[in-house]
Specification:
CATH architecture of the largest domain: Sandwich
Distance between the termini: 95 Å
Number of helices: 3
Largest sheet: 6 strands, mixed
Shape: globular
CATH topology of the largest domain: Jelly Rolls
């Protein structure tokens, strides 16, 4: 019995997760500019010394996570070899596989720390501070590059051993060349253009108007050269056009003079022409003229003085989850949107289709205790697609459709020229509304709305709406209702909700119950429909 019990205890103990942080196998110290050969194996190696040195043979992480680490979580890595190094200055690191690896399948991860944690859901030890990886699965020569700030880093060589259910513990042997070049890091960018567009929107940059022969390049934030140009057309200035746009993220535009060379990093060699720089960049057509131009000057001497760096941001684009209000106004017609018929402390903003945050209101009258929101635009809006967003206090609104929603929540209504939309605002969530002004795209939108809902209330005890409206259409009127799914399903040609709640109405206001088909819906939408003149 003791033997059986003892054996049972040993078996149980062996199934417990043993969590250990990465251990450094070799410290390269401070890396200088130039090449360093790194090689080794993930297998256990014992050098008797003295002193005794043990490397490899440790499996302290089965997976690496971190920002931009989009690894398959069913994949597994076995033993690792950890290389520590320090950068005294920002640098571009290029790792090159010049010949095939001798054994196994080594994969390479860069981490900022050695910490690992056991993930109960995945059932594996996970390294927590990954920032970059490269598998080097292509035939030699193969290479990967990145730009790093000053600091200490760890290059972890992991032996890939397969996916969950098919793991084969095989060690790997590796040999790479590590090249270090000095680099200006994006922290040193001279001019921040901020948000200039959304993912997929057409982009054009140029240096037209500059006083010298320029060159222009667009880099990713990590230093990859995306596109460059010397002379555009018949002139000496430069232009880069990206009609398909860029993915969401941060990028760098670099202007240099003829004679300089753009390299990965981004790095620009010195010795180019210098002078007065004008950069024209994508801007918001709804802003004042000239918003897309910036000027500066370069002078001979160093890379920093002979080039100009511009950082800019591309957003993810318009929200995917929104209520489509259709056409609610014509261009130049006074326009109001508000949440005055609400119980929650709201904040309201309007964005254009390019992602610029142009109108905002928090409280209509805080001194009178009116914490709802009103946006009044006497001059109206330009023709196009627009977005309104309602969020609870305290919220933050930024260009690029970025909203950090506040904690306030509860029942509210968004009133617009076409009607009132009753909603429930969830704390920490922003509600988006898409609407059109005029006829964007030659065919979008409905005829100008001539029924204006002036008030809408709901009594939860009786399950009844009371709605009033002003109109320029002829009676009779009818009330249509629908769910959130019904609202999403209607189109511009048949812009009517499916459930008829009342017919033959000749005047407002009216009170009516929510139809039985919609009683259990979390959100109910209402329309007043009139007869054509």
């Amino acid at each position: 019995m003791k033997r059986a019990l003892q054996g049972l205890l040993i078996t149980f103990a062996a199934t417990l997760a043993a969590v250990a942080d990465y251990e450094v196998d070799i410290d390269l110290g401070t890396l200088l500019e130039g090449n360093t050969e790194i090689s080794g194996t993930t297998a256990l190696v014992v050098d008797p010394g003295p002193p005794e040195v043990v490397t490899g043979g440790r499996n302290n992480a089965d997976l690496v996570i971190g920002e931009d680490m989009d690894l398959n979580t069913t994949a597994n890595w076995g033993n690792e070899y950890v290389i520590q190094f320090t950068l005294a200055e920002p640098a571009t690191l290029t790792l090159s596989k010049d010949r095939e690896f001798a054994a196994g399948d080594p994969d390479f991860f860069l981490v900022e720390g050695l910490r690992t944690e056991f993930d109960v859901d995945l059932g594996k030890n996970v390294a927590q501070e990954g920032i970059w990886y490269h598998f080097f699965d292509n035939p030699a020569p193969d290479q990967g590059s990145l730009v790093l700030r000053t600091g200490t880093y760890y290059l972890v060589v992991e032996s890939f051993v397969g996916f969950d259910g098919a793991v084969n513990q095989v060690d790997a042997t590796f040999s790479l060349n590590l090249n270090v070049l000095p680099a200006l890091f994006p922290d040193e960018v001279k001019i921040d253009l901020g948000f200039i567009g959304s993912e997929g929107s057409s982009l054009t940059f140029d240096t037209f108007g500059s006083s010298f022969d320029t060159q222009l390049a667009i880099f990713s934030f990590g230093g990859d050269l995306i596109q460059e140009n010397d002379n555009a057309g018949e002139g000496l200035q430069s232009q880069v056009s990206i009609p398909e746009g860029l993915d969401a993220g941060t990028y760098i535009a670099v202007v240099a003079g003829v004679g300089a060379t753009f390299e990965l990093g981004p790095i620009t060699t010195i010795g180019g022409a210098v002078g007065d720089v004008i950069l024209n960049y994508p801007s918001n057509p709804n802003l004042d003229p000239g918003a897309g131009t910036t000027t500066t000057r370069t002078s001979a001497g160093t890379e920093a003085s002979e080039t100009v760096w511009f950082e800019f941001t591309i957003s993810l684009g318009p929200p995917l989850d929104f209520v489509d209000l259709g056409k609610i106004a014509d261009p130049g017609i006074p326009l109001q949107l508000h949440t005055l018929e609400s119980l929650v402390d709201t904040q309201l903003a309007i964005y254009d289709e390019f992602g610029y945050f142009l109108y905002y209101n928090d409280d209509v009258d805080v001194n009178a205790g009116v914490y709802q929101s009103l946006i009044d635009i006497p001059e109206g809006l330009a023709e196009g697609v627009w977005f309104a967003v309602v969020a609870g206090y305290p919220s933050t609104f930024l260009d690029g459709f970025e909203v950090a929603a506040g904690t306030a929540g509860g029942s509210y209504s968004l009133t617009h020229p076409n009607g009132i939309v009753p909603m429930v605002l969830e704390p920490g969530r922003a509600d988006w509304y898409r609407f059109e002004v005029g006829d964007p795209g030659n065919g979008g939108g409905n005829e100008s709305a001539r029924i204006q809902i002036t008030s809408l209330t709901f009594d939860p005890d009786t399950n009844e709406f009371t709605v009033a409206w002003d109109d320029a259409l002829s009676a009779p009127f009818r009330i249509q209702m629908g769910s959130e799914l019904d609202l999403a399903a209607i189109d511009r040609q048949d812009n009517v909700l499916p459930v008829t709640a009342a017919v033959g109405l000749v005047a407002s206001p009216v009170t009516l119950r929510v139809p039985d088909d919609l009683v259990l819906e979390p959100k109910v939408f209402l329309q007043v429909v009139g007869s054509a003149p």
